[in-house]
Amino acid sequence: MAVNFAQWGNSLYTGKRSYDIVGHRRIFFTASGIVILICIISFFFPGLTLGIDFTGGSQFQITTASTPTDQNLDLARATVQATIGEREPTVTKIGTSQIRVETKELSSEQSSEVRTALAKAFKITADKVTATYIGPTWGKDVSGKAFRGAIIFLVLVGVGMSLYFRAWRMAVSALVALLHDMIITLGIYAIVGFEITPASVIGFLTVLAYSLYDTVVIFDKVRENTTGIVDQTQYTYAEAANLAVNQTLVRSINTSVIALLPVASILFIGSFILGAGTLSDISLALFVGMIAGAYSSIFIATPMETLLRSRETRIKEHDKLVFARRDQEGTDATKLTHLTPIGAVRPGQHQGVAAQPKRPARAHRGASPLADPNTADPNNPTGAQL
């Protein structure tokens, strides 16, 4: 299996095997649009569940003598409901000996009654139940800072990408991919009913950074493949960009899987099995966001950038020249498997003049028109970016 995977990666890198991701961008855009629409609707129905740090309220922490069970959580919930009439207090298991109960804002008398009732229900002394009050001003301040942090991050990303790639289209495409990841992650939070806490916000920003890193690597390969694209008539900008996505596909899969393994352990083992409730908020953000980020880097960012570039006049004219040449020579783009890569010059060929395609006896189905066995990196047969 390892050998086959390496061969598959090598075929993607050289272009012998190619998946037309850019060419099928409408499918991916439509699928993402449907998911995003569902997520946006979930913001209102059932709605986002904001943690006490954002909404303000009262919090009680119970220290038990043994590991809390589901019955203990139900007992804490029922006790608070019976004491103050709280419709649905938020009850969370923390670690191996604590339970956290979050309610609306309570008065001092109500808070004292809840502490006494919880201590009596769990048969512990009152000092084992701590009460904390978080005012609405604090919650508003936290919400404002979280929002400003996200906006500043996106602005810096746009400026940084524009300066690095010297192309605003790549910056716009990267921002579209980041917004895609953010909306989907928030939508999953709303659908499953997880609380959004300051730890969740940290997870969101971490996800954006991870997604941006993956996108930059792919864009770097796109820039490498498309340098001097209009100086030849072998292949179009979209085909060169699509090859870049295929060449970095193995690397994206490898890094995503490796990054998801520890996050999945924290989410499923730490949160649901061991009951580390404080880890569930950030781990869910990382888990969902990394998956969405890997998807958007491959299926959203580069196809979006190619769509924007394809509207340029010189790219349109260049595409016409490429297709005209193929029509004249009767060349099938899917069978061009041994063409000179951009920047390479064969003996007797002047720079900027397209080489004549070599017709192989048997071309691999789905091969890229940029395919060239000489472009494989012998020290990196899978095509992964080091």
Topology:
Elements: H1 2-14, H2 25-47, E1 49-50, H3 52-55, E2 57-63, H4 70-84, E3 90-94, E4 98-103, H5 108-122, E5 129-134, H6 136-165, H7 168-192, E6 195-196, H8 198-226, H9 237-247, H10 249-273, H11 277-309, H12 313-329
Helix pairs in contact: 1-9, 2-7, 2-11, 4-5, 6-7, 6-8, 7-8, 7-11, 8-9, 8-11, 9-11, 10-11
Describe the 3D structure.
The chain has 386 residues and is α+β, with helices and mostly antiparallel strands. It folds into two domains: 10-50 and 138-313, Multidrug efflux transporter AcrB transmembrane domain (Multidrug efflux transporter AcrB transmembrane fold); 57-134, 2-Layer Sandwich (Alpha-Beta Plaits). It is 62% helix and 7% strand. It contains twelve helices and six strands. A four-stranded antiparallel sheet has the order 3-4-2-5. Strands 1-6 form a two-stranded parallel sheet. Helix 6 packs antiparallel against helix 7 (168-192) and helix 10 packs antiparallel against helix 11. It is elongated, with a radius of gyration of 27 Å. Mean pLDDT is 79; it is low at 334-365 and 376-386.
The low-confidence parts are 334-365, 376-386
How much of the sequence lies in strands comes to: 5-15%
Number of H- or I-type helical stretches: 12
Shape: elongated
The CATH H-level superfamily of the largest domain is Multidrug efflux transporter AcrB transmembrane domain
Distance between the termini: 22 Å
**Mean residue pLDDT:** 79
Q: How many domains comprise the coordinates?
A: 2
- How are strands sequenced across the largest beta sheet? 3-4-2-5
What series of H and E elements makes up the topology? HHEHEHEEHEHHEHHHHH
Rg estimate, integer Å? 27 Å
Class inferred from helices and paired strands:
alpha+beta
| Counted beta strands | 6
CATH architecture field of the largest domain = Up-down Bundle
- What percent of residues adopt helix (DSSP H or I)? 55-70%
